[in-house]
Amino acid sequence: MAGRDLVSIATVMAILGGTAGYLLSDHYSNATDTALSASAAESNVMTSPVGSVTETASIPDIEPRRETVILEKGSNLMATLTATGLERTVAYNAIEALRDVYNPRKLRAGQEFDLVYSAPMEDSIELLDELSFQPDPETIVSVSRTDSGFEASSDKIELTTKKNVASGTIEQSLFLAAERNGVPIPVLMSLIELYSYEVDFQRDIQPGDSFEVMYQELENDKGERVRYGDLLYASMTLSGHEVRLYSYTDSNGETDFYNQKGESYRRALMRTPINGARLSSGFGKRKHPILGYTKMHKGIDFAAPRGTPIFAAGNGTIAKIGRNGGYGNYIRIRHNDSYETAYAHMKGFAKGLKQGSRVKQGDVIGYVGTTGASTGPHLHYEILKNNAQVNPIRVKMPSGKKLKGDELKTFLADADILRKQYAELSLDNRKIASAQ
Ligand SMILES: [Zn+2]
Hints:
By secondary structure, the chain is of the alpha+beta class. About 25% of the residues lie in helices and about 35% in strands.
């Protein structure tokens, strides 16, 4: 699914609050570090699955010699290789070959390299046959000696996708409940993103609310988890009302989340048509910052740096584009017979847009500025229902796509399978937990 129209990490941080946000980033980096160092540690004993050096092992009786070296802080690959006793010209040639597939400047301290040397004949010097390393858990880069010099290659490590599940009941906050029930942070983030179309996480979560989630885990050939994949199924029960969502790829190959009735959970309109912005002024009566008197604020303001892209909140047609008094540079999009959205104070518009242009949800239509009656760079955003501004945060959003006919049948069958897999996996997890 397209990620950019979902709630940004910054917004998630804001939702979780300062402390939680800190914990979140801390946990996230720890998790990543662990994954990286685990795979790095393994590479000590790893035989490279790519480009293994059979062709140069022409002397069958003697095993090739293997060595693992680490890039020290402040050092570089040349120094690291020559410190092993490798000849300077050989190291140079290997690094030059490497440049075809990987920029050695991107190497970081702590990176491990596996070196393989051909078995030496008596009185002859040892030859470097292969240099390989994993710059990230999903990539293996190797430089191998051939008859015509060194050749480099970069290959993706094939990962196995597994499914896992988690569930929990909220006592204080979603974050604490997720932590207590072992929900990985990236999965929690995806869950919040998914439900942010309908749930205001600062207001709607109550003690006793609960969630379920099934997600992908990607493992390497050693069975180590490298990263988390997509959410497949999720459920949130808020004040006794359960919303189950299923990931489904339709006949056009588009993946989205649908409820039990086959209705897309992606809303026809986005509440926040900008990423990484801070809600700086809500909808309702307020003292006007420039005019000084109390006035109805008919939209919401998002403070963001000048030039931040602004997205079309939904599919539609540009009804108005250009200067519009106090609104400054202004766009209004007509989405259907009853809904329009408006965007004000823009620095400028996306190239090629004019009245009547068709736009799709998530298309960049312009950039944050401070044109018109504005005190600083921000987006003023309005949702209009039947020509009247409504509160974008509280308005019940028009729903998106609905599956019909055979597509609906296929979806319902798939959803049933996901639900059964969830039930089986959570039973397995409970068995494992009670056995410990
Ligand atoms: Zn405003």
